Amino acid sequence: GVATGNATIRATLDDVVGSLAFSVVPGGIEPELTSVSLLPAALTAPPAPEGGRITSYRNPVVPGFHPDPSVVRVGEDFYLVNSSFELFPGVPLFTSRDLVHWKPLGHVLTRESQLPLQKARPSGGIYAPTIRHHDGTFYMITTNVDGGGNFYVTAKDPAGPWSEPVWLPDFGGIDPSLFFDDDGTVYLTGQGSGAP
């Protein structure tokens, strides 16, 4: 922002270090630490018009480093997860009602027992998570390319806690996904060397 006259303009910078607010005043910038967070505190989409439809928005709707998005709708709420690679905690989780305004809920993988990263190389770790919901349970399935392969975790509440991993040692490759069919069949798909 730009300061003109005696106006004070505030801007928020969110990154992996924390939330730092800057007061831009004539003659300089005065930083103050406001909180420590690993997720963006405020996302950049303009507020939804009161009682109306969103007719425009700015991409990206989830700014920053959030590759490989997967979204599931449960009732009126949408939930989104992203790859986190070698970073801990793993798999950031967001919620939205309109697919434009996203709020951080936390992370799916919050315990070392869920996310072994001791052997993770740069850009290794967690690839392309998928989030699903079936019969009141959330499922997140993904690949830890440097620490065990494909696995899934479950939770009744998307904000957690999430279960310990269920490892899928006979399912190779990356980018696993689940599909729950109406007849009760669950399909597991992926990229690369698949399941028997």
**Rg, nearest Å:** 20 Å
- End-to-end C-alpha gap: 57 Å
What overall geometry do the principal axes of the alpha carbons give?
globular
- Specify the structural class: mainly beta
Q: What is the string of helix and strand elements? A: EEEEEEEEEEEEE
Low-confidence stretches: 1-44
- Taken as a percent bin, the fraction of beta residues is 35-45%
- Please, how many helices? 0
Work out the number of β strands: 13
Average pLDDT, rounded to a whole number, is: 79
Amount of helix: under 10%
Strand order in the sheet with the most strands: 4-5-6-7
Describe the main β-sheet briefly. 4 strands, antiparallel
Quick summary of this structure?
By secondary structure, the chain is an all-beta fold. It contains no helices and 13 strands. Strands 4-5-6-7 form a four-stranded antiparallel beta sheet, with no helix packed on it.
Structure in words:
A hairpin with an 8-residue loop joins strand 5 (77-81) and strand 6. The chain has a four-stranded antiparallel beta sheet with strand order 4-5-6-7, with no helix packed on it. It has strands spanning 9-14, 19-25, 28-35, 70-74, 77-81, 90-96, 103-109, 126-134, 137-144, 149-155, 166-167, 174-180, 186-191. It contains no helices and 13 strands. It is mostly beta strands and 196 residues long.
